[in-house]
Design a protein that fits this description.
The protein is mainly alpha-helical. It has 20 helices and two strands. Helix 6 crosses helix 9, helix 9 packs antiparallel against helix 10 and helix 13 packs antiparallel against helix 18. The longest helix is centred in the last third of the chain and has 32 residues.
Length: about 500
C-alpha cells in the first residue's frame, strides 16, 4: 500500500467525485467527501515524511518506465505543496456542510453536485502538483479549472455567474498559452517527462522555439496565479463565490500555480536559463513590486470584505513572486514558506467571513457593525488571521516576510525591503477597517446576531491556531521550505 501512495493521492478523490454525484443529498454525501479529503491529507503527510526520510519518490503508472510512461515524482517541494492542498481541502470540506445547505444557489436535490465539483477540483490540484509529466500538468489544470468555474458560479449573488464567466475566459486563455508552450517543448525535445525535458533542453536552448515556449508558459501560468496585471479575474471570483469555495481556492489554487512556475523555471528550464539567459528576474521584480503596492492600496478602499481580501491575495502573490525574483536560497525560502503561511491566513480569514455571512447575510463593512461583541469567537479567528496577514511576530505570516526582507538585504536591495515593510502597514489599515466596524461601531437597532455554530467555528479556529503554532515552530513552514529552495538551486548537490 505504501508503495502506491503517489497514485492513491490522486485516484481516491477522483473515484470519490462520481460517488458523491450518485448519493442523495444530506449527511451521507458530505461524510463521503469529508472522509475522502482527510484521507488525502493523511496520504500527503505520509508522502512528505517518506521524502524527508528517504529522498524523492518515483512512481511509474502502469509500470511503464519513464519517459515512455507517465511518472509521478515526489520531491520535497511538491510533497510540501501536496500537504498544503490536502490540508486546506480537508479543513474547508469539514467547514462546508452548513454553507452548502444554506448559502449556495442550488436546490437541495442538486447539492451533491457541489461535492462532486469540489472533489474534482481537489483531484486536479493534487494531480498538477504530483505529476512528473508536462502534458499531465495541463490535463489536471483543466480538471481543476472547469470544476472551480462551477463552484464559483453557484454563489447566492447573481454576479457569481458573471465572475465565473470572466474567470472561464481568462483561465481558458491561460490554459491555451500553457498548452502551446508544452507543445513547442515537445516539438524540440520529443518528450513530455519533466526530468527528461530538463536533460534535453540545454542542447536546444538557443533556439527561438524554446524561447517562445518559455514565454508562453510564463504568461499562461502567470495568468493562472493572478500575477499583476493578469489578476483582473480574481477579485470578482473570490468576492461572489460561496465562502467555502473562496476559502478553498484562495488557499490552494494560486499556490499550485506558483508551484508550477517554480517547477518549470528551476527544474525544467533550469535557473541558469530562466534568470541568466532569459533574464526573467528583470520582469518579475517590477511586476511583483507594483502588484504588492497597487493591490494593497486598492484593498484599503473596498467595502466588501471578501473583495478586500481578494486584492490582498494579489499583493501576497506579489510577495511570492518577489522571493522568486531574488534567485537565492533565502528568497526562494520566503516564497515557498509563504505558500504555506498564506494558505493558513487566507483560509482562516475567509472561513471567518463565512461565519459572518452565515449569520448576517453578507460580508460587508456596514453589515459587520458591532459583531465583535455578538460574534466574539468568529472575530477572534478573524483577528488572528489578520495579524498573520500583517506579519506580526509570533504568527506564521511573520516568518515568510522576515525571510523576504533578509533575502532583499542580502542582495543589497534595501528599497525592496522598505517597500515590504510599507505594504505591511497598508495591510494594517485595511484590517483595521474591519476591526473598527466590528468593535467600535454600534450594531444597527433591532439587529440580533448570534455566534456562528460550532460546525463552522471549529474548522476556522483550527486554522487560526495553526497561524500561531507555525509562527513559533517553523520547522515545517520554513525548515522544509529551505530544503526545497536548496534543491531547486542545486545547493549542496
Amino acid at each position: 500500500m505504501i508503495a502506491h501512495l503517489p497514485a492513491l493521492q490522486v485516484v481516491i478523490p477522483l473515484i470519490s467525485a462520481p460517488l458523491c454525484a450518485l448519493l442523495p443529498a444530506g449527511r451521507a454525501v458530505w461524510l463521503t467527501a469529508v472522509s475522502t479529503s482527510w484521507l488525502a491529507f493523511l496520504i500527503a503527510v505520509l508522502l512528505l515524511n517518506q521524502v524527508l526520510a528517504h529522498g524523492p519518490v518515483s512512481y511509474l503508472m502502469g509500470s511503464w518506465p519513464a519517459p515512455w510512461g507517465i511518472e509521478y515524482r515526489v520531491d520535497v517541494l511538491n510533497a510540501y505543496v501536496l500537504l498544503i492542498v490536502a490540508m486546506i481541502g480537508a479543513i474547508v470540506m469539514t467547514f462546508g456542510r452548513l454553507i452548502v445547505e444554506r448559502r449556495i444557489r442550488l436546490p437541495e436535490h442538486k447539492q451533491p453536485w457541489f461535492y462532486t465539483a469540489y472533489m474534482l477540483c481537489l483531484t486536479g490540484l493534487l494531480g498538477i502538483t504530483i505529476t512528473g509529466d508536462a502534458f499531465n500538468v495541463f490535463v489536471f489544470l483543466e480538471i481543476s479549472s472547469l470544476s472551480s468555474y462551477v463552484l464559483i458560479s453557484i454563489g447566492r449573488d447573481r454576479r457569481a455567474l458573471t465572475a465565473a464567466y470572466q474567470y472561464l475566459i481568462m483561465g481558458t486563455i491561460g490554459a491555451t498559452f500553457i498548452l502551446i508552450g508544452i507543445g513547442l517543448l515537445y516539438v524540440m525535445t520529443g518528450t513530455l517527462n519533466m526530468g527528461d525535458l530538463a536533460a534535453r533542453i540545454p542542447a536546444v536552448a538557443d533556439t527561438r522555439t524554446v524561447h517562445a515556449a518559455f514565454a508562453f508558459l510564463t504568461v499562461g501560468v502567470s495568468l493562472k496565479l493572478a500575477l499583476f496585471p493578469l489578476h483582473l479575474w480574481l477579485p470578482n471570483a473570490y468576492a461572489y463565490a460561496p465562502s467555502a469555495v473562496t476559502a478553498f481556492l484562495a488557499a490552494t489554487a494560486t499556490k499550485v500555480a506558483v508551484y508550477v512556475l517554480l517547477r518549470f523555471f528551476f527544474t525544467v528550464f533550469g535557473a541558469g536559463f530562466s534568470f541568466e539567459t532569459m533574464e526573467l528576474d528583470r520582469i518579475l521584480l517590477p511586476l511583483a513590486l507594483v502588484g504588492i503596492f497597487s493591490a494593497s492600496v486598492v484593498a484599503v478602499f473596498q467595502t466588501n470584505v471578501k473583495r478586500m481580501l481578494a486584492y490582498s491575495s494579489v499583493a501576497q502573490i506579489g510577495y511570492m513572486i518577489l522571493g522568486i525574483s531574488l534567485v537565492s536560497v533565502t528568497g526562494l525560502t520566503a516564497s515557498i514558506s509563504h505558500l504555506f503561511n498564506h494558505a493558513l491566513m487566507k483560509g482562516t480569514l475567509f472561513m471567518a467571513l463565512g461565519c459572518v455571512s452565515f449569520r448576517v447575510g453578507a460580508a460587508k463593512l456596514e453589515r459587520m457593525a458591532g459583531i465583535g461583541r455578538t460574534m466574539p469567537w468568529t472575530m477572534g479567528a478573524f483577528m488572528i488571521g489578520g495579524l498573520s496577514l500583517i506579519g506580526v511576530p509570533l504568527t506564521a505570516g511573520f516568518v515568510s516576510k522576515w525571510y523576504l526582507v533578509v533575502g532583499a538585504l542580502e542582495k543589497g536591495w534595501w528599497p525592496v525591503a522598505v517597500l515590504v515593510l510599507i505594504t505591511s502597514l497598508l495591510a494594517v489599515i485595511y484590517i483595521w477597517r474591519v476591526v473598527e466596524a466590528a468593535y467600535f461601531k454600534p450594531a444597527p437597532e433591532g439587529q440580533v446576531v448570534r455566534e456562528a455554530p460550532l460546525a463552522l467555528l471549529v474548522p476556522a479556529w483550527t486554522l487560526a491556531l495553526a497561524n500561531l503554532y507555525f509562527g513559533l515552530d517553523t520547522s515545517l513552514n520554513a525548515g522544509v521550505a529551505q530544503q526545497a529552495a536548496e534543491m531547486l538551486l542545486g545547493v549542496g548537490q
